[in-house]
Fold each of these.
Amino acid sequence: MTTPVKAAIEVRALRKEFPVRDKGIFGPRGVKRAVDGLDLDVPRGRITGLLGLNGAGKTTTIKTVATLLRPTSGRVTVDGLDTVTDARAVRRRINLIAGGERMVYTRMTGRENLWYFGQLYDVPKKELRPRIDDLLALVGLTDVADTMVERYSRGMTQRLAIARGLVNRPAYLLLDEPTLGLDAPIARDLRRVVARLAEEGTGVLLTSHYLAEVEELCGHVYVISAGRHLAAGSPAELKAATGTHRTIRLTVTTPSPATAAVATRFGADLELLSTGAELITLRHPDDMAGPLAAAIVEAGGSIGGLEIAEASLEDAILALADGSREAATV
Ligand SMILES: Nc1ncnc2c1ncn2[C@@H]1O[C@H](COP(=O)(O)OP(=O)(O)OP(=O)(O)O)[C@@H](O)[C@H]1O
C-alpha cells in the first residue's frame, strides 16, 4: 500500500551551508550555515509567512524550495516530488516572485516577456494568449504591453515580474519581499491578488519586512533566527505566546496626586505634557481601559482623551528576536 501524498510543500530538517572565505580569496576556507535544520509545511489554500531578522535564512530557504539551491542535507518536497531529483516537475508547480530581482528581459516588450516565460512553462498557446492579456490588465500594464521593458520604470518592471510569476498558474507561489519598492496602491492590489489566489487553492509562502502585510495575509507564520526554528502559529497565537501587550494612552486634563496614585497602582507610566495635562501610558495584555478610566474619574480626574493601540505582530517578532538574542548570550 502506498502512502497518500500530501498536497503541500514539505521542508524537512533542511540544512544549507555555503563555502566562505572570511578574509578575502586567499583567506582560510570556512562554512556559513544559512539554514540549520528547518521544518516547514506550506499547504495549498493558505498563505504561510516566513519571518526573521536580516540574515535569518529566509531567502536561502525560499531559493531551495524553488530548486535554485540544493540542500546540504534534509529534504524539500512539493506534492511529494523532491526538489533535487524531480526538479523539472517541481518547477511546473511553483513560481517565485522576488521583490528585489526583476527576472524579466529588458530588450523585449512586456507581452513578449510573458509569451517567452509562458512557453518555457509549456502553457498551451491557445491558453497563453488570453492569459497574458488578463495578467497585463491585472498588473496595470495593458497600455505599455508592446513597449520595450528598458523604457519601463522600476515599479512597472516589478509589476511585469509579478505577472511573470503567475504565467504558469502555479500551484504554489513563493513570494520573497514581493511588495518591496512598489507604490502603495500597486502593493495593495498585489495583496488582493495573492489573497484571492490562496482562496482559490494556491499555496503561498511569503516573506516580507512589512509585518502589517504578513498580519493581514498569513494564516500561519514561522519565525526563524540564524536558520533555526524560533516559533510558529497564527499571528494572533504568536502575539498571545509572546505576551505582547496592547497600549492604552489616557490623558488626564486635571492631574492631581490622587490621579497619579491611581496610575502608579495600575503600574502605568506618567508624563507631564506641556499643556499641563498628564499622559498615562499602560501596557497590559488585558483590556484595562475601562477600569483605569473609571479609577481616574473616581479619583477626581477628568479625561481629555483615550487611545488604545492593539499589539502588533511587529511587537511579537521583536519580543521573539530579543528573547533569542538573550538566549544566545546566556
Ligand atoms: N551564497 C552565499 N554565500 C555565503 N553566505 C551566504 C550566501 N547566501 C546567503 N548567505 C548567508 O546566509 C545567511 C542567511 O542569508 P539569507 O539571505 O537567506 O537571509 P534572509 O533571512 O533572507 O535575510 P534578509 O532579510 O536580509 O534578506 C546570511 O548570513 C547570509 O550572509
Note: The CA atoms of residues 54 and 146 lie 38 Å apart.
Amino acid sequence: MDLQLRGISKQYNGKPVLQDVSFDVAKGEFVALVGPSGAGKTTLLKVIAGLEDPDGGEIHCSFASSKERPIILVFQDFLLFPTMTVFENIAFGLRARKFPKTVIRERVEHMLHYFQLENRANAYPAQLSGGQQQRVAIARGMVVNPAVMLLDEPFANLDRSLRLETAGFIRRTQQEFGITTIAVTHDLDEALAVSDSMGVLMKGRLEQMGTPKEVYFFPKNQQVARFLGPMNTIPADMFHLLDMDVAPGTRELLVRPEALDLAADPDGPGTIREVRFSGHYQACVVAVGGRELVIYQKPNGLRTGHRVRIRVNADLGTRE
Ligand SMILES: Nc1ncnc2c1ncn2[C@@H]1O[C@H](COP(=O)(O)OP(=O)(O)OP(=O)(O)O)[C@@H](O)[C@H]1O
C-alpha cells in the first residue's frame, strides 16, 4: 500500500470542507476523485501533497518524500514556462533539485524520446500544438521520478478529442513508470475510462470508492447515482412488466440506461415515445406501466410508436 488516509478532516473558517475521509491507494494505482464543485477535491489533494494540514486524521505513506522520490502536484492547465524551451521546461524540476548536469541531460533526453518530442527540444511552448504542450507538461512531472503524482483537473480546458488522448496518455505513462497517481477531475468520461479506482466526494465526505464499474453501476445511494449520470428508478410494482430476476424483498431498482435492452414485440408492455440520436448510441424514451424509462441502444431500427419488451441486464443493475 502506498498511501493510507485515515479520518481526514479539514475546516475553513469553521466550515467543514473534508469530513472523515479514509481510503487506501495501492502502489501504481490510478485513483480518480470526482464530485460536484466545492466538494473538497482540491483541498484533499493539497492535504495529500502536504500543502495544507488536516485538522484531524492521518496519512501514512510507504515512502518518504525526498529529492530522489518526491510527491508531485501538477496543477490545473499544465502551465509551461513560456520563455523556456521544451528541454528547459522538462529539466526545470531536476535543476531546482540540483541534480548534476549529466544526469539532467540523460533524464530529459529519455523523456523527450519517450514522449516523441526529440525534434521539439529547442522549441518554445507557443510553437507547440496543444497536445505537444500537454506531453511536455506530463514529461516535466515524470522526469523527477515521482513516487506519487497528484493531478488537479488534468483534462480541463481541452477539447473532447484531446481530453481522451491526454487521459490515455497519462494512463499509459503512469502504468509504464509504475507511478501511483491521484487525479481530481470534473471529466467523468475520462475518470471512468482511465482509473483503477474512483472516489466520489460530496460535501466533504467520500460517499463511495470502488472500481469505476462498481461505482457507476452499483452506486451506494441516489446522490452518487445521479451525479454520475442518468438513472432509471424502477419501483416494485413495475417488476412484473420487465424481463428480469429480482431478489425477494427488493423495493426499488436503480438501473442505468445502458443496462436495459429493448426487443420489438407487438405484445410487449412498453411503447417507444421518443428516439434521440446521440452519436454512437440512441436514447429511447419508453413508456411502460405509467412511467418513462430512458434506455440506450445501438441504432437498431426501433422507432417511435413501436411496442417493445424490456430486459434488465442483472449484472449492471443495482438495488436499493
Ligand atoms: N483557502 C481557503 N480558504 C477558505 N475556504 C476555502 C479555501 N480553499 C477552499 N475553500 C472552500 O472549501 C470548499 C471546497 O473547496 P475545493 O476547492 O476543495 O473544492 P473542489 O471540490 O475542488 O471544487 P471545484 O471542483 O470547484 O474546484 C469550497 O467551499 C471552497 O470555497
Note: The two ends are 32 Å apart (CA to CA).
